[in-house]
Amino acid sequence: MNPDSTLSVIDQVFESITKSQESRLDLIIREKGNIRSVGEGIATVGGLPNVVTDELLKFEDGSLGLVYNLDEHEIGVILLDEEQHIDAGDEAFRTERVLGVPVGEALLGRVVDALGRPIDGKAAFRAATYLAVERESPPIMNRQSVDTPLQTGILTIDALLPIGRGQRELILGDRQTGKTAIAIDSIINQRDTDVISIYCAIGKQRAEVNRVVSDLQKNDAFENTIVLSASSSVPVGLQYIAPYAATTMGEYFMEQGRDALIIYDDLTWHARAYRELALLLRRPPGREAFPGDIFHIHARLLERSTHLKESGGSMTALPIIETQGQDIAAFIPTNLISITDGQIFLSPDLFQKDVLPAIDIGKSVSRVGGAAQLPAYRIASEELRLAYSQFEELEAFSRFSSRLDEDTLHRIERGRRIREVLSQDQFDTIDVVQQIALLIAVTNGLFDELDLSQIKPACRMMRNNIESELGNMSTKIKEGEKLEKNEEERVVNILRKLVDKKF
């Protein structure tokens, strides 16, 4: 054969191979393993030698799993979808990406699951971007002090336990003492502000979540709220990642320079979900069978809530914890108290006495305090707290003695009126000017001559008339300006005239 013709044939072969490769789509290299066992929300997978922790895996049926354990011969995976269609022997594929969720304006007014998928029966939405569920908390140098109040509309909290934008305030108490009610009222009070609210339900019954959504809709607070539901019926893996996903949704707005409020309801169930996963994955148990890093999973979650220096945005966290028998020294409550900037403790004893909200002021504290409180509150809040604390002690003491001096009787009667003023129904949020008026009235003894049965009508009358009576001073209070001494006296005189006129 002619050498030239041989070279020509070889050239033709190479040319045909090159054209064939160019005409085909690029090859996709996928690393795959096999499921060895599956059950109770977890799976073990063999193979995948290059997989990394927190990587997302995809199974044959399209469901997802999160890599958690990296052992020598197999990996432990947290299932993020139902396991009915996953069997031992099925293939598992690497995605080479971490778990992310959709964020942005499209989620407002929607109910989504822990993966950001809509579960409210409405049309699917198109999110602007996706962010990782696990993100680093902002460095200390990127944070600024908490100095702007987040008004909850609850008089006891705003006056005595003020919460600032960027703060982390724990709500804890026994079952059925009104913890969720405080959180929902706090969201409702943001309806006329620029604050974006996120309600994260962990381990709740679906009926409870539906009730929360209904309450928000009735009070016109749902359009600026995202509800993320990881109910008790979903895989435990979704319950575990739910608070991190909700935090990522809030961080998007915080990084845009906006203010967000996030409710974790509640982290007791989150801790139990993590304990269940850890035991199934055969991680060493510690105190109360919780794994050793139980503190870390909540610390890294709550440290992401802060007030940013560069953008000026903030994210305020109100985590909820359920106690047993008022034991705030238990393992999980102690952990959360040490992480957060204060706590609001709800007492079942007060709840049974129909003192609502059932906040035990003596066991509650806000470590930010007056730094995030409007100046007008300081006229009355310090004196109010002292008077109420003395009243609680004297009331307990008076049960053992029938003979009390005039000063003690006066303090007890004043305390009863303070308690009546602080009593507040759910959904009945009180704005700043009305709160200031009620505080000034009770601390200056304007209700001392009224019967206890007249306190509530007097408070309603005052709330209905105070803004029109104060005029420009109401604007001054809302804008955070300090009232001069003569203005304080004028407010007291206006309130006295209102009470004298009506009662």
The averaged pLDDT comes out at 90
- Any low-confidence stretches, pLDDT <50, length ≥5? none
Tally of separate helices: 15
Per CATH, the architecture of the largest domain is: 3-Layer(aba) Sandwich
The tally of structural domains comes to 3
The CATH class of the largest domain is Alpha Beta
**How many strand elements?**
16
Largest sheet, spatial ordering of strands: 8-12-11-13-14-10-15-16
Largest sheet: number of strands, sense, barrel closure: 8 strands, mixed
Distance between the termini: 123 Å
How large is the share of residues in beta strands? 15-25%
Shape: elongated
Find the CATH superfamily of the largest domain.
Answer: P-loop containing nucleotide triphosphate hydrolases
Structural class: alpha/beta
| CATH topology descriptor of the largest domain | Rossmann fold
Describe this protein's structure.
With 503 residues, this protein is of the alpha/beta class. It has three domains: 32-98, Elongation Factor Tu (Ef-tu), domain 3; 102-373, P-loop containing nucleotide triphosphate hydrolases (Rossmann fold), CATH 3.40.50; 377-502, ATP synthase alpha/beta chain, C-terminal domain (Lysin, Up-down Bundle), CATH 1.20.150. Helices cover 39% and strands 18% of the residues. The chain contains 15 helices and 16 strands. It has an eight-stranded mixed sheet with strand order 8-12-11-13-14-10-15-16, with helices on both faces. A six-stranded antiparallel barrel has the order 1-2-5-4-3-6. A two-stranded antiparallel sheet has the order 7-9. Strand 4 (64-70) and strand 5 form a beta hairpin. The protein is elongated and about 100 Å long. The protein starts with a helix and ends with a helix.
